[in-house]
Write a structure and sequence with these properties.
The chain is an alpha/beta fold and about 220 residues long. The chain has a single domain, classed as Alpha-Beta Complex (Spore Coat Polysaccharide Biosynthesis Protein SpsA, Chain A). It is built from eight helices and twelve strands. Strands 3-9-5-10-8 form a five-stranded mixed β-sheet. Strand 1, helix 2 and strand 2 form a beta-alpha-beta unit. The two termini are about 30 Å apart. This is Glycosyltransferase family 2 protein.
Length: about 220
Amino acid sequence: MRPDRLRDVLDAVARQTHPEVELVLVTHGFEVPAPELAALSAERGLEHVRAVPADSALTLGACMNLGVDAADGTYVAKMDDDNFYGRHYLADLVAAFGGTSAQVVGKWAHLTYLESTGTVLLRFPAVEQRYSRLVQGGTILVEREVARDLRFEDLPRRVDTTFLDKVRAHGGRVYATDRFGFVSVRSARTAGHTWRVSDAELLAKPSRVLFYGEPWEYADV
């Protein structure tokens, strides 16, 4: 929903080491001219990119379903336009399917970067490499057929939680991998986030301050 983040989204997908990645770009409330998208994708070596325009009146859940319906892969990954994804992010999540019986994998232990103060938090450090009730919404990797069958709820928020609830209600399992490869980036302007919690509220929740400064190198292992 942020046109100014288009290049960042393309960079995040282009840096992935997992082979044969397809990007389905759901543009919420705006459109990207096809020649511009083609040129930007070619600059980054991205071959499989398609844009799916979504009316601004549609909910987040409806936008998610548009993306799922347009995807061709075995798995579908939800990647947000304002978070950081390391080089091995997708490869690591896909590999987790090989050693688990999960229908969804993602991250619950994760880094959070507060841009306003440069604080790097580690949240939910105890939930790594284990089955979990939840994973971060921006890290959901799900079997495409499961996503198409269960669908995301037509809601403006909490679509990740309600989707994971449905997965478990249908006998599925959710697996949380390690803390690396992903950073939840919190802008100083919380109005731009779907989850509009303040930095002060985040700091009051269970977490550990790791350090101050940009976390990209630490996360991208």
